[in-house]
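User: Structure please.
Assistant: Input sequence and predicted structure:
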Amino acid sequence: WVNATDTDAAKWIKIFTFLHKEEIESVIAEHSSNESQRLLQKTLAAEVTRFVHGEQGLKEALETTEKIFSNQQAPAENLSVQDFENMTGITKVSVQAEAIQAGADVVSFLAEHKIFPSKGEARKMIQNGGLSINRKKITDITTTINTGFLLHNKYMLIQKGKTNFFLAELV
C-alpha cells in the first residue's frame, strides 16, 4: 500500500477502506499539497492494516516500521533485544548456531536461508550494492558471515533492496 502510485492509492482508498467520502477527499487534498509525505498511501496502509489485523496489529506494524525505517542512518546496534523480539510484519529466518560459528560465505548463507532464491541472484544484488546487514552495505561477495555480524549475540537485520527486511535469529 505504501508503495502505491498516487493514482492507485486514490482509487484504492475509496474501495478498500470504510472512510467517509469527506474524509477521503480531505486526505487526497492534503496529500496533493505535499506529495512527498505520502499521506494518501500511509492512510490507506493504516486503514487496511487496522481492518485486517485490528488496532493492536496496526500499532505493532507502526512500531516495527518506525524501528526499521525511521532512522536508517542510526547503527543497528542501537536496537535493543526487546526491539528485535517485538518486531512483527518482518520475515524472520532461523539460523543454526553452527552455521555462523563455522563461518559461511555471504552468497551461500543468503541462498540457503531463502533470503534469495539462488546464489546467482544474491551475488548480483551484492555486486549492485543492494544488500545491507545490520545497516551496513555488503559489497564483497567473499564476505564471511560469522559471529561478528550478530547483534546481542543472536540477531542480524538483513535488508534486500530498499524495502525487503529479514530478521535472522540464531537458534
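Residues 39-69 form the longest helix (31 residues).
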